[in-house]
Amino acid sequence: MNQTERNLILELYSKTSDEILNTEIILYSNRALIQGREYHTFNYDEKFDSTNSHTIEYNERENRKKYFGRILKFIQVRENQFCLVKRYLQINKDSFFKKLSIECAKYIDKFFQIVELTDDSFLVDFLNIKRRCIVMNCEGQMVMSMIDDLEEMD
């Protein structure tokens, strides 16, 4: 367990010492079944060219704001299950839209987000995962779209 993971778990359980880390079994996995859908970590998906089961839309516990993230690990502490996620930040679409026709741009704006991956890591409860997303590299920018109906993407 790296220091970031330690800090996030301690913060989640409102602990200031490593007590929970020394007294609880902490399980890790590269795959998880969440709300009937299989998800993978980014490193697991790297083995397969056509897989993108590691990008998600989620909400934080404190608010209902929508976020996007890349799953790095699945973690279970006690009976609680989490994803360690790096957050995607939505960025201004204007520069990307300049490359498209007006007709094309209106559909891109409705169904896609332009994002960049941050260095910020978060623990996301399985219950806060809303759906799977897919990220594509297009013209040097990362374009994301949400996916609602696929059970697994292997």
From TrEMBL:
Top-level taxon of origin: Eukaryota
Protein name stated in the entry: Uncharacterized protein
